[in-house]
Design a protein that fits this description.
This protein is of the alpha/beta class. It contains four helices and three strands, in the order αβαβααβ. It has a three-stranded parallel beta sheet with strand order 1-2-3, covered by helices on one side.
Amino acid sequence: MNVKQIRDPNLKPLPENVRDVKIALIGAGSASLSCASFLARLGYNNVHIYEKANYSGGLVTSEIPPNRSNISDVEWEADMARELGVKIFYNKEFGKDVT
């Protein structure tokens, strides 16, 4: 649709001490991708997702058969989050690579 993901210009800017707070989400599943996108749209600048696999989507991509879910849709969601400034780190396991 070629619609850029942007922060709503009508929203009041977040205070500086709040917008740069570090936010880490564990796992790049549907919930984390959605949460990260909403946080970025609200104006948070430092949102990171850590995923232990080398792909996004969580159970949608690892457990649901491809004929029932479209993996390209999940990648589209991840790309939309990245457009907003969310950083996704793959091959990072919680408790091992990230503490």
